[in-house]
Fold Heavy metal translocating P-type ATPase.
Amino acid sequence: ATPTAFMAATGRGAQLGVLLRGPEALERLQHIDTVVFDKTGTLTTGRMTLVDTTPTAGEDEAEILRLAGAVEYGSEHPIGRAVAAAARQAAKDGQLPPVTDFRAVPGVGVSGRVDGREVVVGRPRPDTPLPDTLQQALDRAHAAARTAVVVETDGRPVGVLAVGDTLRPSSRPAVRQLSELGIEPILVTGDGPAAARAVAEQVGIDEVHAEVTPEGKTDIVAKLREEGRRVAVIGDGVNDAAALASADLGIAMGSGTDAAIGAADITLVREDMQAVVAAVQLTRRTLGTIR
Ligand code: ADP
Ligand code: MG
């Protein structure tokens, strides 16, 4: 395509709310045949809310939320924001206790010291059995397609927090329209299989990979590319940054983390998934599909 065509397409892209890092992004978008979607914050709004707190026997629900909220306060993850917001609301003075040794592990969870205790909030570990009340809380959350995380103090599981999320209204039509353009949608998430399947069903995606680590996301992209596919990844999180960078084309949600936006070739400034479809149609129309 000519420089004029690129410039025109870039300008149209900006109008659609699609920010391009350079002309190569357009060229590559044109040839994409597979789109790997992240779930939380991408197909869903990522504006999560805490819907349930379950303590183990002998533990206090309010105390678990206070400790979990304190460590999550430093997290950029939608789960962390939901937990911290709920904890602040529940606190009498709206204040959370101070945290030292804060650590966030993408795709896993957060930890820190609060009131002399080591507090961890993160993904349920399949290899660690939970007390019955907590296992039941996990099962209940999963049956309702919610995301559930485990709270540990000093190495002991003391509670389960269930958070709910909402689908972006544009996700389902965007997935359908991409399929119609011959682009295969795949869902890859760090969340559990139940929440993953529920979202996949709602948006109309058949291929689902759940409980995938950030490195695992990169591996899936590498495998697809080895099969000769031209792969775009759409994500928002720190956990998506490596996969975004390793794809033929990385697309970040404008509401996403700096890490995701920095790793991507394209940013969706409006939170509208259908802008991706419009951008693909635009490149095919203006740049031509045959090189
Ligand atoms: P996704 O791919 O859906 O965006 P992530 O890879 O970010 O999910 O996270 C995978 C899992 O790791 C979450 O479902 C959760 O169990 C756990 N996790 C990640 N960040 C946090 C956090 N800040 N607090 C609690 N759990 C977390
Ligand atoms: Mg995400």
The chain has a mean pLDDT of 94. The pocket of adenosine-5'-diphosphate (ligand 1) is lined by residues 38-41, 72, 75, 77, 79-80, 107-110, 121-123, 147, 149, 189-191, 237, 239 (CB under 6 Å).
